[in-house]
Input
Amino acid sequence: MAEEKRKTGRHTLHMEEREKVRIGGVLEVLSFDEESIMMETTCGMLMLKGAGLHIGKLDLDSGDVTVDGSIDSITYSDGGFGEKHSILGRLFR
Output
């Protein structure tokens, strides 16, 4: 099902003054704390990093997320962010 949404869903990202981000096309929020938020979007994995990050709005039915805080970086990845390692990768960590 996530693969179907990935192909057909629309992804948007709107940032205001590096303090507020509105993101559309979010499939799932995988992890979050005050320094980073990782989510799966229709365009791949998205990682926000900063300080004092707070999820203000979360509506996964519509795919909308709003994040407030001091945003330092926004990074996309087609895979994961080092979470899914091969068995050899896990052995040599």
Summary: The first helix runs from residue 2 to 8. The first strand starts at residue 12 and ends at 16. The two ends are 32 Å apart (CA to CA). Helices lie at 2-8, 87-91.
